[in-house]
Structures are given as C-alpha cells and as structure tokens.
Design brief:
Layout lengths: L5 E6 L3 H12 L5 E3 L13 E2 L9 E2 H14 L3 E3 L3 E5 L5 E5 L4 E9 L3 E3 L5 H5 L5 E2 L2 H4 L8 E4 L3 H11 L5 E4 L9 H8 L4 E4 L2 E7 L6 E6 L5 E4 L3 E4 L3 E3 L30 E3 L11 H21 L4
Parallel strand pairs: 1-2, 1-8, 2-5, 8-19, 10-17, 11-12, 11-17, 12-13
Antiparallel strand pairs: 3-4, 6-7, 7-8, 9-18, 14-15, 15-16
Length: 312
C-alpha cells in the first residue's frame, strides 16, 4: 500500500472522467485516473460522433476518446488501466480499492463511472450494433433521415426517442411488449398524436435482420403468435440505462434507479471531498458534451475543496 495520500483520484474514463482529469491536472492536483473495465466509456462503441463541437467533419467515438486521453496525459494525469471495485468514504481521507485489492488513498474522489445502455440480449442486436442498431436517437437519429426506423420500449425514454425520430423519419415503428405503455400520460399523448409513429402493441423482437446494415426486424405478437417482418433501416433500443454506481450505494445518495444525486447546482455529494460527474448522475441528457461539462465542474469543485482545506 502506498503511504502517500493523493490529491485527486478519478474513477472512470469517458468524457466526464477525462475532462475532470484535464482540469485537475492543469490546476496542479496531479490526478490519477482509473479507467475501469471499458476505457473511454460508451463512446468506444460509437462510430460517427457528429454533434460534439470542434469536429466539423465528425469523429469516430474511439478516436475522440483517444484525443481526450492524450490531452489528459499531456498535462500530467497518471492513467491506470484498472477496475475499482470498492470504496471507503468513512474518514477525511478517502480509500478506493482495485480489483486486485490494492488500496489507494486520496483527499478527493471524482466519480465518472457512467451508465450502460440496457439491451435486449439478441445475437443479431450485438452483431448490428453501430450498423443500424443504436441506444441513442439523439446521437444517431440524424443518420436515418428519410428512412424507416423501429424503436423498442414503452417508457418515457422510448416515447421521447420515437418522438424525436418522427421529426426525421417518414415512419417510426414503436414496438411495445404489452397492451399499454409505461410512459407518463403527457408522453403517451405525444406519441399517440404523432401520425407517423405506428405503435405495435403486444409485440416482441425476435431478430434484427441484415448483414452489414439493418434491413428489417422480425417481430412476434405475444398474444396471437403471429410473426411479421417490418422493413426498417434503423433499430433503436430504448429500454433504459443502468448507472454504474452499485459500489457507492452504502455511501452516497441515489435516486430510485441508482443515479447519484449531487447537491443541487454542483458536483458535490454529501460526503466532503467526493464529487460526481457524467452519466452516473445524469439520466436526462446523457450526451458526451454534457458529461464533459460536469467533469469540468467536478474538477473545479475538487480544487476549491482542496484550497479550502489548505491542501492545494
């Protein structure tokens, strides 16, 4: 175990984590960042990113994360390709533990562990991810302008995705497993009043069809057993996201779905010296640019905390 207490440790390596590292390093906090199991986060499974400022021709998700990493390292961030599995926030000095059991001590911890999209678990879904299968209409809907698409889900997320895509696509097929939606009443009304959203009730996805790109989806009516192929070029999974926050449950405030809850208007948690950023605390926007913004906030809040403690 290292005897030195670090100024800042960052858990997670998506846009939030790397942005926090850039700001913390430039402030002289000598941050150490632990990438987790998926260095770069969700953008590592994203092909074209066209909505991040500064890339007029777009950029591949993994390429953008590589640029983030290089910029963080340029200012002195030390990056560890390790997974953090446990934390201990009992004292003024915080402890985090790697999967090998190594203990790291730090005055501040910035949590940027992100969230993971929930998937249907189909082999064809996995095969066609980034080839027409997506979990983010705001991110990828632009690529399907003028084409027919399908959205699977029945909650607010599915209703929002379908409504967004209906502005870009001539037909949006909303696949709902039951005979009713779980979405809020206002979102249901929006979907029902949008003429180019076709709702398929009691419908489950059997297979997404296509070789190098999505060509259709085979569905089955779970009441009648009738099967049907719907020709679509895009397939959007909107059954929710799961924040990667389980190890913080004993320590930090969460909402009912596991998203961390910061003090309003800040990145601070109720434990001094612990800050949250990115999709681990954002179930509304879930964009790379908003994650980066909260990473900046967390680093600035951490710096101010350390100054107030006479450490920075």
């Amino acid at each position: 175990m290292a005897n030195d207490v670090l100024k800042t440790v960052i858990i997670g390596s998506g846009p939030a984590g790397y942005t926090a590292a850039i700001y913390a390093a430039r402030a002289g906090l000598m941050p150490e960042l632990y990438t987790g199991a998926e260095p770069g986060g969700q953008l590592m499974i994203t092909t074209d990113v066209e909505n991040y400022p500064g890339f007029p021709d777009g950029v591949m998700g993994p390429d953008m994360m590589e640029l983030f990493r290089k910029q963080a390292e340029r200012f002195g961030t030390k990056i560890h390709y390790e997974l953090i599995t446990k934390v201990d926030f009992t004292g003024p000095v915080h402890k985090i533990y790697t999967e090998e059991g190594r203990e790291i001590q730090s005055h501040t911890v910035i949590i940027s562990t992100g969230a993971s999209a929930k998937w249907l678990g189909l082999e064809s879904e996995k095969k066609l991810t980034n080839k027409g299968v997506s979990a983010c209409a705001v991110c990828d809907g632009f690529f399907f302008r003028g084409q027919e698409v399908a959205v699977v889900g029945a909650g607010d997320t599915a209703a929002e995705e379908a409504s967004y895509l209906a502005k870009l696509c001539p037909k949006v097929h909303l696949l709902v497993r039951r005979d009713e939606m779980r979405a809020s009443k206002i979102m249901q009304e929006r979907v029902l009043n949008t003429p180019n959203i076709i709702i398929h009730w009691n419908t489950e996805t059997e297979e997404i069809l296509g070789g190098d790109a999505v060509e259709g989806v085979r569905v089955v009516n779970n009441r009648t057993g009738k099967k049907e192929v719907i020709p679509v070029q895009g397939f959007f999974v909107a059954i929710g996201h799961k924040p990667n926050t389980e190890m913080f449950r004993p320590w930090l405030e969460m909402d009912e779905t596991g998203y961390l809850v910061p003090v309003a208007g800040t990145s601070r948690t109720r434990i001094p010296g612990v800050f949250v950023s990115g999709d681990a605390q954002d179930k509304v926007y879930r964009q790379a640019v908003t994650a980066a913004g909260t990473g900046c906030m967390a680093a600035l809040d951490a710096e101010r905390y350390l100054v107030a403690q006479g450490i920075a």
